[in-house]
Design a protein that fits this description.
Blueprint: E1 2-6, E2 12-16, H1 23-27, H2 40-48, H3 55-62, H4 80-92, H5 96-108, E3 128-133, E4 138-143, H6 165-176, H7 190-196, H8 203-213, E5 220-222, E6 227-229, E7 244-247, E8 253-257, E9 262-266, E10 270-271, H9 279-291
Parallel strand pairs: 3-10
Antiparallel strand pairs: 1-2, 3-4, 5-6, 6-7, 7-8, 8-9
Helix pairs in contact: 2-3
């Protein structure tokens, strides 16, 4: 395993890595995994498979790329969770989508979630407003879907699932109830949920995360794959420290607050406006309505 190293004179050299990548590194985006999935070796693997690329085949090709930094020394949002998806396949002996369906989706009633949208549900796919101008209320273009499927056969653990609002709130509610869904099924232990929402970053790593997230992440740290609130006053938040969740690439937003027993999820499909600026407002209005 090799890592990129920048010398004081600005030149780059490839060195043998000193640290190993741990599972926690993958969960916390501190593994140094490259953000470039479409490397030459990956394309060669896809071409050899007649345009398809299985999850494990692609990840094995990605593993040939030098790491961006020594594991555990920086935070970089990228394909760490895709590698976790591949790890699940190796340990379970099942495709990632199959494993998730059996252990989460089917058990708690998530009927619209998967890596592929069936033909009979295609008409329900939300429009994707591209280049949206929130002042003019117009978009440059309208697409069918925010395409996260790089190749047929590749199931991205970091961003390949398609879901619905009704499905996702079932998942958020289960996490809010320390792993127990509304139908009584347990998908995680209480200890796992608490481990998930415990901040894992400090020093330079927390600075990296703050720079990545901007104001929307002010007062938040990062746990096992989720942002987690560590300074509610800094974020002017009505939620409690330990509230966690994520906000998606086109404006989706999840708030999960086990201490207050509050779960919020809303969705939109637009790219162009700075939707992250009003996420905190949406959250606080919701809490104000609950507590009023």
């Amino acid at each position: 395993m090799y890592v990129r190293h920048i010398n004081q004179d600005g030149t780059e050299e490839i060195r043998e890595a000193k640290n190993i990548i741990t599972i926690e590194n993958l969960f916390t985006m501190t593994g140094g995994i490259t953000s470039a999935r479409e490397t030459e070796k990956v394309w060669q693997a896809v071409k050899a498979a007649n345009g398809k690329g299985s999850t494990l085949d692609i990840i094995k090709m990605m593993a040939d790329e030098p790491l961006l930094f020594e594991p555990g020394t920086r935070f970089k949002y990228g394909y760490c969770h895709d590698v976790l998806g591949g790890l699940i396949e190796v340990v379970s002996g099942k495709k990632l989508g199959e494993y998730l369906k059996e252990n989460i989706f089917d058990r708690i009633g998530m009927v619209d979630t998967g890596f592929i949208v069936p033909a009979e549900k295609q008409y329900r796919i939300a429009k994707h407003y591209i280049g949206f101008d929130s002042k003019m209320h117009k978009s440059r273009d309208i697409g069918e879907i925010y395409d996260v499927h790089a190749w047929d056969g590749y199931e991205s653990g970091g961003g390949g699932l398609v879901s619905s609002v009704n499905d996702y709130i079932l998942f958020a509610a289960a996490l809010c109830n320390y792993g127990i869904a509304e139908n009584g099924e347990r998908i995680l232990s209480e200890q796992s949920v608490n481990a998930m929402r415990t901040n894992r970053l400090d020093g330079q790593l927390l600075n990296d995360f703050s720079e990545f997230g901007g104001w929307s992440k002010a007062g938040y740290g990062y746990g096992l794959g989720v942002r987690t609130l560590i300074d509610r006053e800094r974020n002017n938040s009505l939620s409690e420290n330990g509230e966690f969740g994520w906000d998606g690439a086109c404006g989706c937003y999840a708030v999960i607050d086990p201490a207050a027993q509050v779960a919020i999820f809303y969705a939109q499909q637009e790219a162009g406006s700075q939707w992250w600026e009003w996420h905190g407002t949406v959250r606080n209005f919701a809490y104000a309505g609950i507590w009023s």
